Amino acid sequence: MSTEEKSLHFIEQIIEDSLSNGFPQDKLRFRFPPEPNGYLHIGHAKSICLNFGLGLKYNAPVNLRFDDTNPAKEEQEYVDAIKEDLQWLGFNWAEERYASDYFQQLYDWAVKMIKNGTAYIDSQSSEDMAAQKGTPTQPGVDGPFRNRSVEENLTLFEGMKNGDFEEGSHVLRAKIDMTSTNMLMRDPLMYRVLHRHHHRTGNDWKIYPMYDFAHGESDYIEQISHSICTLEFVMHRELYNWFLDQIYEDSKVKPHQYEFARLNLNYTVMSKRKLLQLVQENIVNGWDDPRMPTISGLRRRGYTAASIRKFCEIIGVAKRENIIDFSLLEFCLREDLNKTAPRVMAVLDSIKLVITNYPEDKEEWLEAENNQEDESAGFRKVPFSKELFIEREDFLEDAPAKFFRLSLGREVRLKNAYIIKGESVIKDAAENITEIHVTYDEDSRSGSGSEASQRKVAGTLHWVSIKHALETEVRLYDRLFIDEAPDSHKEKNFLEFMNPSSLQIVKGFVEPSLATVQSGEKFQFQRLGYFNVDKDTAEGKIVFNKTVGLKDAWEEKGKKEENLLMNTQKEINKYVKEKDENNASLILNSIVENIKSIDNYSLIIQTIVKNIKNDNNSLLFSNLILHHSDKVQVKDIEEESLTKLYTMSLKSQMAAVRILAIDNLQNDLNNFTLFKVQLSELKTNEKNEKVLQLLNDLKI
């Protein structure tokens, strides 16, 4: 049977075209060039998989090169972490290189450019240089130092190198074209003075090359054939080529830059600066906090290298930016862990269950399958006794018909064990249930082959024998942000979208087979999700991290919130039509509670804007959300949309809409001033007593 050949992505097609046009395959060389100013994150994983994947596909070397040209932000810690992440992902580099290896060569090339008249020392302030550079629509002008003599430039550059000048006093600039439509070509900086200790060269250098100069020249030194960057470097390509043209020799390979769309993942931030802020302000517990999108954080959370590689393969390589749903990453993880993670039983919110007709001192070791997806995983023994822990949510004293767990008078199966029936409960003084008493069917043991064992019951519960249970610390991790795009909203700090429930620590109980677990081991807690043994685990203390649930809770929550808003909008119609004042008040209270329960900021904003139209009920809905949601403020709505909402609402035939619009304006001082005239006109013509009273109270 023939199989369809996998199509090439556009970078592979570029390489195929290069080879077809005569480029020697043995000259193919790639690199992964991180700046050691932070830990790698999931966005870097795409670039890693792309570059090293090309190396594997074409049997070509891939260098790991650290572009360490800014000692103010770079540390050896980051270098070590990057190397560890790459090896964990399953990739090996041909050579370990550093831009700092080339500092002397880069300096020599800069001197050559000064002598050739294509570089000069500028002594302007950074503010003056910015003004002199112009704008995207206005060409720049030559600065006062652009035509310094070669001799003066060489003397000053030597002085910069020797540490004779303060930081910010002089820079070396390339002499290109101050009128170029590409602002990056308007005499870009090549070197700046930095009296900083470098993690590799110590205090040998007082000047450091700029990234745009060092990056392409480093590619040239290493004879990289295809320099693959993300789309933000498209405008840098012209400068990349210009710098290469100053040093290129015909006998060598001239690198070419190609750009692909970087990975944008919702419900997270990818900016190293913002990730560093989370670490420095102790919002998270370090770069490897399991809530972080760093590779080390994902690894500690329990992600597998295979799942991340699969994720990068699925999203592919494209030329256009798009946003990938975090759920896809979690899907890849579940797919992998489902095949490899042993199944065990754990209880995280325990309540005591007593089997009243089970012998007091009896103890059984029951057979349990380790992983039904893996025939070679085998079986283990789990202890069973009279007193067990089950999940508190798995019991209701008085349950509805569709509750398929344990309740009084109903039967369920205990996983790998017996069928039990709820008989009674014991409560404390506050009427909280402290014990559940059940009876068991002795003939119903799982796998016994008896008629009773094959009896069908409503549900199956996991459990742990109390006298055999191991107490553990379980860290329940969730997404760090509650908004899809936390750093994309104008005038909003991304920290405003932190998920207050991103970490909850609970006491759990697990079966005794987990007594000797080691850091990094992964398990499926049956019915609860996948969990990873944290590095904080020590003798006498087991710590588990929740890696991911069995189902996509966020997708479910998102759908629930969307459906809730849709249903709430229908309630608006009922509210408007309701004649009885008490009933109307009840409906309105329900609407307001629904609005307050919505966490998704983007969904709220979209709903407000979508309902700004010439329809009284829609305008009422928008105003209610704006008034009652604590997730949005008037400044979060675009000015044009907000103006339209106020204008249409004040003209609405429905008094409730006008009242809410006036209330919202009172909380929006900027627009209140702008709408004073319209409010005064409304006051003159208003017939509704409540609206009129409200307008009179405004004293306009």
TrEMBL record:
Residues 126-145 are annotated as: Disordered. InterPro entries: aa-tRNA-synth_I_CS, Gln-tRNA-synth, Gln/Glu-tRNA_Ligase, Glu/Gln-tRNA-synth, Glu/Gln-tRNA-synth_Ib_cat-dom, Glu/Gln-tRNA-synth_Ib_codon-bd, Rbsml_bL25/Gln-tRNA_synth_N, Ribosomal_bL25/Gln-tRNA_synth. Residues 27-338 form the Glutamyl/glutaminyl-tRNA synthetase class Ib catalytic domain. Residues 341-441 form the Glutamyl/glutaminyl-tRNA synthetase class Ib anti-codon binding domain. It is an enzyme of class 6 (ligase). GO terms for cellular component: cytosol. It catalyses: tRNA(Gln) + L-glutamine + ATP = L-glutaminyl-tRNA(Gln) + AMP + diphosphate. Belongs to the class-I aminoacyl-tRNA synthetase family. This is Glutamine--tRNA ligase.
